[in-house]
Amino acid sequence: MQDDGPIPAGLTRRGALALLASLAPAAAFAAPYPERPVRLIVPLAPGGPADTSARVFAPYLSAALGQNVLVENRPGASAVIGTESVVRAAPDGYTVLFGSSSTFAINPAVMKNLRFDAHKELRLIGLICYTPHVLVVRASVPAQTFPELVRLAKAQPDTLIYASSGNGGAIHLASELVKLEAGIDLRHLPYRGGGPAVLGLLAGDAQIFINDLSTTIQHIRNGRLRPLAMAWTARSPQLPDVPTFAELGFPAVISTSWFGLAAPVATPADVIARLDQAMRQAFAAPEYQAALKHIGFEQFILDADQSIAFIKREIDKWSAVARSANIQID
After folding, report:
1. C-alpha of 23 from chain center
2. CATH architecture for residues 132-230
3. Where are the domains of the chain?
4. Could you tell me the pLDDT band of residue 30, with boundaries at 50, 70 and 90?
5. 180 pLDDT exceeds 90?
6. What share of the chain has pLDDT > 90, as a percent?
7. Hey, what CATH class is 38-130+257-325 in?
8. In the chain, what is the straight-line distance between the N-terminal and C-terminal CA atoms, in Å?
9. Left (φ > 0), alpha (ψ -120 to 50) or beta: where does 67 sit?
10. What is the average pLDDT across 226-253?
């Protein structure tokens, strides 16, 4: 038998072989992450802003990780079903969440019987992107500006109808925030998703809609919808002539649909660090930045502390709006 070299004092050759055998599984476990494709769970329906932005992001995350990133839609119950599937997934970095404002802020504000706590059972890797909300009206509505719409609504209380993507969702709460700040009374017409809500607006079933810029920009460009105000801190480069609510005297009306990357809370720190590194590599790609802007999104530029502070402000704001409007989902 070939001599494999000296054996440490006090250790027999049989003991040395046993020790080497015991180390083999540990070496296999320490293989670099990721070794296989990563599932990116989108807890909202295909075709919406979450799905669209996730599918723009995924190829760049894949390139940075050196593995396929597979987008998987798991919609239902205002993002609860898909989010819970990640909360319950193995904490190994192979199932991650493309979470939304509903996941992190809206649902905790309006749902009292959630089966999980997203802030305790998920680890936020980072905020990714957002699309500001814009208030639009049908082209036939006799209001060219938001102040004119306010006057019209006050002259005809509980007559004008606003569409939303569903009871207790981000768009419902954003609309109630506008009502609260402007002191107007509007009727609510909920739909099952943002796409059907836009169609209802275009069909004339509703007159007003505050929604993602990414969802409405095409109809604004073709003249079927008229933008009156941006619910963000600055004007959109895509609609530079549309004022912000703050410019019109309503600084509290700030609303976006936003998205972040998260994993089960017990995911190892080195895996979280690798995902964070890959996410930031994706952000740095000029092609990714251009693709985001093309679909009406902006990239977040926040560090970890700023991200946490942003989410806390969102939770506080939407909790106050939900209480004021008496919005609660069992």
Report:
1. 42
2. 3-Layer(aba) Sandwich (3.40)
3. 38-130+257-325, 132-230
4. low
5. yes
6. 76
7. alpha beta
8. 73
9. beta
10. 95
* Residue 284, token pair as written in the block: 């740095």
For residues 101 and 313, is the Cβ–Cβ distance under 8 A? Answer: no
- Token pair for residue 253? 């009306």
Per-residue b or e along 69-101, where b marks 16 or more CB atoms closer than 10 Å to that residue's CB: bebebbbeebbbebbbbbbebebebbbbbbbbb
Q: Which residue has the tokens 């990563």?
A: 38
**110-143: burial string, b at 16+ Cβ within 10 Å, e else:** bbeeeeeebbebbbbbbbbbbbbbbbbbbeebeb
Measured CA to CA, the distance from residue 291 to residue 58 in angstroms comes to 12
Give phi and psi for 253, each to the nearest 5.
-85, 90
In the predicted model, is pLDDT for residue 20 greater than 60? Answer: no
261-291 pLDDT, tens digit each: 999 999 999 999 999 999 999 999 999 999 9
Query: Phi/psi at 116 (nearest 5 deg)?
Result: -150, 165
- Per the listing, tokens 């979470």 go with 99
Closest CA relative to residue 258, chosen from 291, 299, 209, 217: 299
Encoded tokens for 1? 């038998």
| Per-residue pLDDT at 193 exceeds 90 | no
Same fold yes or no, 38-130+257-325 and 132-230: yes
Find tokens 């649909």 and name the residue.
257
Can you tell me the distance from the alpha carbon of 219 to that of 237, in angstroms, rounded to the nearest whole number?
17
